[in-house]
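Table S2 (continued). Query chain:
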Amino acid sequence: MSNQPQGDVEFSRVLARTDVLALAFGAMIGWGWIVLTGGWIQSAGSLGAITAFLLGGTVVVLVGLTYAELASAMPQVGGEFVYSYRAMGHFVSFICTWAIILGYVSVVAFEAVALPTVVEHLFPSYAVGDMWTIAGWDVKATWVAVGVAGSLVMMAINYVGVRTAALVQKVVTLLILVVGIIFITGSMFTGDTVTMEPLFNVKEGVAGGIMTVIIMVPFMFVGFDVIPQAAEEINLPFKEIGRVLMFSVIMAVFWYAFIIFGTSLMLNPEALAESSLAVPDAMQAVFKAPWAGKLMVLAGIAGIITSWNAFYIGGSRAIYALAEAGMLPAFFAKLHPKYRTPTNAILVMGLLSSIAPFFGRPALVWLVVAGGVGIVVAYLCVSLSFVLLRLREPDMPRPFRVYRGKTVGTLSVLMSVLMIGLYMPGSPSALTMTEWSIFVGWMLFGLVLYSGSRMRYGVDYTEKVMQRELARQSPYEKA
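Corresponding output:
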């Protein structure tokens, strides 16, 4: 069996600036802000939670800068795979990419659980039909049906082309922005700064409260890394890829900060304690009408869709890149002759997403946490690649060149190591044995696939593929 390139079938460069911005921003904001904002304010105080996101956002910006330079310098499909391969070689590039694929899979799986969960807030009695119980959670037939249907729809959207996926992403992201702006401006006019007290959680300690929130911050920004995965489908000058990536990260930082601000203006500590979804309740308080809260829940559903869609794109392109280089079975390296999408990789992502609702909500939390480890491992690999390539290839064309790159790169490496440390024993967010088992099992499974593919195709084949990828030209100049 051969894993040779597929003739003239290549990705289509069709993503414009607004497409790329919606892809990254929509991936980062997701659904978490709807569910978690009240808890952040209770843990750190209103100003404490905002401070946590500004500080944590600074860490993400540092890592994002390394991505921005590398994505502009090497705009090939696979992102992390290409950078880590050039900087650290065959094996490390596989570990880096396989780890972040776990992160992508965990997100698309969890969104298939998040959708039926949020639908319950609109239709409280719709979940019927007992199936089984997993980790204390009663899995309902109609609940599973909603999750599976959503998975299949998202899979179909991605199957028929990145242009369709990008259009859906833009429309839905625009909905989130419009509702968010209405909420933020409305809260500024009708809210009261008195309800923001306490500004900091002095009972638990100011620093302790902020740290409780800040350990969650990096993982709320996962999604900007989807841009490098789809780099061969972006129709922009290389320098603009880096700029759009950074702008999307900064937008997300301010989004979270203003959502926290608006919620704290509308709900006092007692109201926050009684609320299950603080942001919709705050929106309802702005307009003093139940429809406003439901509108915010719809914005939350839109966030599920944007995140789901973006990680379908990112995950399928990462799988394709490994397969195209002979590190995974050639089955995953197929591009559709008409739609120019990695169809088999998309189908596998869709299958995993469709299975997820059958396991219920608690079991999927284990997968998401384990996926978080994979993502920060990839961040560390990219940061190291950035530093090594600055040292080894100082003259490599870098259309988007980071100012004081060595300092930024060193800080990014340190921050990535600290993020990995958050999962280690002794940390407030340390992984459980079950979550470590998922992560280790995933990595071992990948190594089995890697070993089999390496025996079949060999390292020499990968070298040839990477040389072709790194030499591939875009319609734009690199300088």
